[in-house]
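Explain this protein:
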Amino acid sequence: MSTTDRPAKFAIVGTGWRSEFFLRVAAELPGRFTVTGVHSRSAARREELAHRFGTLAVDSVEEAAEQGEPDFVIVAVPWPAAPEITQQIVELGVAVLEETPPAPDLPAMRALWSRVGARDLVQVAEHNMFMPAHRARLRMVREGLVGEPTSVQVTSNHLYHAVSIMRGLLDAGRGPTTVIAHSVSTSLVDPIALGGAFSDDPDPVPRTATLAILDFGGGRTGLYDFTENQWWNPLRHRRLTVRGTAGEIVDDRVVFLEDPRTVVESVVTRRQTGLDMNLEGFFLDSIAVNGRAMYRNPYRPARLSDEDIAAATVVDRMSLWVRGEGPPPYPLADGLQDHLLGLAIEESARLGRPVVTATEPWADAIGPDFEAGVPGES
């Protein structure tokens, strides 16, 4: 917990699927988080969530920013509405944690930056680099286990989320990037639809698969490989490779050069309690390699999925930053850069030619410190 020794207080504007992540972690971790209110244009929906999660339904954005004096407001609304609501809250002098992406297109991103960038009150709820497995991989990379990182291959997340993982593991910055992408129509059985319900349909359905190469400069590249609805489809494995000058990480395996004549192969292991006769509870305890913990779950023994742990970490770090007790979790500039490159992937695939992104006004803003943790993580 922070040195103020009280739960982080936040309100939520928006009652969609992502809003429930934050409501859920607050309910599971009442000693760390308190939701001061939830607002939506739908009175029925905000009343439903307020009742289910034991919080207050509020009638307006202004009330969400003021009721209970939240440390910050989470904005989780559709893309077109997000910039206006974010600006509205910033003008009230309240910090914002905005869901991804911060704005729908490049003109809207530039406009948002010109309106709120200098205020330094907006962070983005990009959670992927706070997933436990990625936190462990990042520590391996930053400790030099595989040498200098040179490429990251992501087959798990779409567009800006995948870009965030690439940039985070490569420390790629926000400079001009060359993107070459190609999409093809394919077909795939899709047993689980968006939201998690089984379709009971064994027949393949049309899907789009996209491959892209991102050249960040300085010898650092990303390989993007995503099939439509891959988040939910259990018939597609999630894969991640980090290649370095002296080894590589491939999912839960690592190979590296111990000394000039010794190549070592290791397995990344998760200590998950509650299996077989373990009676500690059901939670992720830690992730280790070579007998050393690379990540410790700061929220044990709460029953949280990896996605929930990532959401809780973003909120925790946002609270520490707002109180002046930690670095920014994920600055607006990085959320904008991720979406800029995601749009470039789509544009390159559509046009059938390389796309080179420009240096945008947010390029030199302060960046995230992924190595900083939250209490209990190390």
In short: The mean pLDDT is 94.
